[in-house]
């Protein structure tokens, strides 16, 4: 079993002591969560792993919940929203955002719960929300409806990522799907064998965007 006291391989290079920052601590916390899981994380372990006073994180974050807000912001930053196709149709912009959000979360399966259980209120996130609503409004979607669309897509994407992350982290081992040579093998099991984990995401996303586009039109 991997010890959880030492720094994981993905830990970012530490800054000099006078420049310990909120962003570095959030990135280091995310690396620890990736390496050891959310349940084994603590503020004290973070301080020890980065080589500072175990309580140093409290000088930048009031408590662990505030630090997790920072972790969620770090995940959002990883989406790289500035390179999304902002000049294209809003449906393609929304599609690419959802795909990037899903991929980002699934690179950090232990941290999906952190992102899913808190609003991301960083300036970058708020600016992205405003840009999204402005884009939809310019294409004829009222702001309130645009916000509803945005929320539906986010909840679908985050919920999907959480379901896939849980499966990858061990839930799949508890599957009781019958084998093809079993008398219990039925149409549902056959269909499940013909699919791959998560390959329904784009089907659902396409259907949602088509429905939203039809309604907006």
UniProtKB/TrEMBL annotation:
The keyword Transcription regulation is assigned to this record: yes
Entry keyword set: DNA-binding, Repressor, Transcription, Transcription regulation
Stretches assigned to the HTH tetR-type domain: 19-79
Positions of the DNA-binding region: 42-61
Transmembrane parts of this sequence: none
Pfam families reported for this sequence: TetR_C_1, TetR_N
UniProt feature coiled coil, ranges: none
Entry keyword DNA-binding: yes
Protein name, as recorded: TetR/AcrR family transcriptional regulator
Lineage: Bacteria, Bacillati, Actinomycetota, Actinomycetes, Streptosporangiales
């Amino acid at each position: 079993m991997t010890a959880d006291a030492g720094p994981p391989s993905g830990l970012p290079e530490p800054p000099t002591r006078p420049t310990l920052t909120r962003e570095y601590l959030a990135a280091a916390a995310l690396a620890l969560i990736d390496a050891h899981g959310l349940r084994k994380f603590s503020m004290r372990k973070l301080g020890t792993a980065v080589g500072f006073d175990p309580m140093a994180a409290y000088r930048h974050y009031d408590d662990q919940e505030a630090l997790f807000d920072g972790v969620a912001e770090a995940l959002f930053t990883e989406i790289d929203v500035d390179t999304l196709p902002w000049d294209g149709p809003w449906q393609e912009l929304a599609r690419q955002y959802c795909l990037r959000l899903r991929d980002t979360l699934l690179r950090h399966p232990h941290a999906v719960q952190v992102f899913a259980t808190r609003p991301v209120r960083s300036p970058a996130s708020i600016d992205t929300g405003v840009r999204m609503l402005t884009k939809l409004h310019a294409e004829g979607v009222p702001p309130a409806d645009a916000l509803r669309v945005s929320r539906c897509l986010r909840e679908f994407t985050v919920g999907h990522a959480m379901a896939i992350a849980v499966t990858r982290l061990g839930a799949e081992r508890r599957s009781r799907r019958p084998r093809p040579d079993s008398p219990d093998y039925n149409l549902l099991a056959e269909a499940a064998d013909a699919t791959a984990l998560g390959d329904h995401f784009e089907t659902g996303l396409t259907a949602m965007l088509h429905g939203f586009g039809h309604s907006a039109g």
